[in-house]
Amino acid sequence: MFIQFKLWHYCSTPFHQFILQESGLNCPTLCLLVFRWKNRVEVHHQILEEAIMMIKALVFDAYGTLYDVHSLKKACEKFFPEKGKSISIAWRKKQLEYFFQRQLMGRYRPFDELTEDALVFACKAEGVKPSQQEIKTLMDAYLELELFDEVEDVLAGCKGVQRVIFSNGSSNMIEPLVSGSQIEPHIDKIISADGVKQYKPAAPAYAYALDQLDVNRDEVLFMSSNSWDIMGAASFGFHTAWINRGRNQPDTLDIQPEKAYTDLRGILEWL
Fold first, then answer.
1. Element of type H or E holding 110
2. What does pTM read for this prediction?
3. How far apart are CA 86 and CA 94, in angstroms?
4. Helical H runs in the chain?
5. What is the 8-class DSSP label of residue 168?
6. Percent of the chain having pLDDT more than 90?
7. For residues 77 and 65, is the Cβ–Cβ distance under 8 A?
8. Residues annotated as part of the active site
9. Crossing angle, helix 227-236 and helix 203-213, to 10 degrees?
10. How far is 19 from 30, CA to CA, in rounded Å?
């Protein structure tokens, strides 16, 4: 009797009368669909809550996630007026292409070398010819990238778990970058893909990082602003949170992040 009353009450509201009319469903069928959807949502939330309780390591990508790679445009602009932004964009784009290509071809080179190659390409593409000193100065600028605004406060608030940076950047790039920035006290470990000479998003790169953490893969929450990195980590079995700073369209793949945020503050719900 109670169930009949609930069904009648549910289907008697104007909104649900409209849904019944437009869908051609009868009341019990509509209620069954709603209840099934509700149960699925509740199961998803339960799984997520259980995952949150299991997290023992927060693993962050560096470039584009913690550090703004396009803060380099200021240094580029100093040497090449009115071309700083375009060189910065081309530099990053070609940097990504080079390590993807080298990973696919099995022709590994350290990240600092291909980053310099990408810089030379970007300058040529913009019609400028940098001197060796200008190249060195711009490469040094990669060791002084600016943090995104919320990063220091979020990392400081992440207590009781490992706080780890896992980057494709070679150790001679990523370690000085971290040690020279405000987040150094809040980072417990730095892992470079150079240690295994396999670039993310290849599975061996994530396996190497996991070996350094002394936790199970389902106890890791991995965060990156790069969707290709998130897909690689999710495919490997990490929990994932996409830091979608650019509010980009999600990729159409059969692998998706568990959560997506516009900045790092969103990950605090995992703690």
1. none
2. 0.81
3. 12
4. 2-11, 14-23, 27-54, 73-79, 84-105, 111-125, 132-141, 151-157, 171-179, 203-213, 227-236
5. S
6. 80
7. no
8. 61
9. 70
10. 9
